[in-house]
Amino acid sequence: MNYIEFDLTEDYIEQSEGLLIDSIDMPQHSDMLHWAEHVSSKCIFEEDRMEFVSFFNRERILKHYYRGKKEAIITFKRTDSNHGIFWTEASIQIVPDPYSGVIKCFALFKDVDDRKKEEINLRRKSMYDSQTGMLRRESFIDQFSILLQKSMGSTDMHHLFIILDIDDFKKINDTLGHVAGDVVLKTVSSNLKSNLSDSDILGRLGGDEFIIALEDVKTISIASRLTSMQQACGCNYQGMNVTCSLGAAAYPKDGISFDELYNKADSALYVAKAKGKATYSIYGEKN
Length: 287
Hints:
Elements: E1 2-7, E2 12-17, H1 32-43, H2 49-55, H3 58-66, E3 71-79, E4 85-96, E5 103-111, H4 113-127, H5 137-151, E6 159-166, H6 169-176, H7 178-194, E7 201-206, E8 209-214, H8 222-232, E9 235-237, E10 240-242, E11 244-251, H9 258-274, E12 280-282
Parallel strand pairs: 11-12
Antiparallel strand pairs: 1-2, 1-5, 3-4, 4-5, 6-8, 6-11, 7-8, 9-10
Helix pairs in contact: 1-2, 6-7
């Protein structure tokens, strides 16, 4: 843990204790800006440096103080000499000295690495389906919404929204058992992942139904992408041939929101199922 006391009125460090934030070769009476820049360059993870220096900006802190805000917290990543990365929390309190009227800033640094990593782990678990490792519905919608926002106003971006369903999945469970059904789910999801690029988004709606967003798909490659995906997701388990059906809708032609594209892709999936399964259908097209 570290404790640092700043004199904001005269702009210098009055006191510094602890080794968590390493102020190597830093003069005791350095001003806040030079202290922040020095510490940032020595032991703050690169992507957090700008935010760290901005947080310990004397003018910003004084402005907040005169507006009635006397506390603030920042969480960032620090590094050590062994290149380890650790989450750290800095909290500041801004108070006037009752005797001199000098405005002081008290900064307390503490290691929150275990807590932060647990939070990240819990957040990740809430995002992903535990059985297949795919995004849950809500997390898929969040990521898909980001893609749509990025594409808004562009006439060159064409995405493909797909609903994929394992054919006769109930029969697999009824014939081979739910353990076999779980194996098939994991196999299909693994096959799907290997057929997608890093920019594509893959999620599980529940049961045996998956949702996929292919980013910036060229019109001429849509059929080949769907055929490849339909073939790749199939497998053979204990003598049972497992196939999948796909329904697809295009952004922005068929819709510009999750709900619009989902409904159109769902209609296309119904067509694919009606055609005998183990195939794909594109909304609004005769195929």
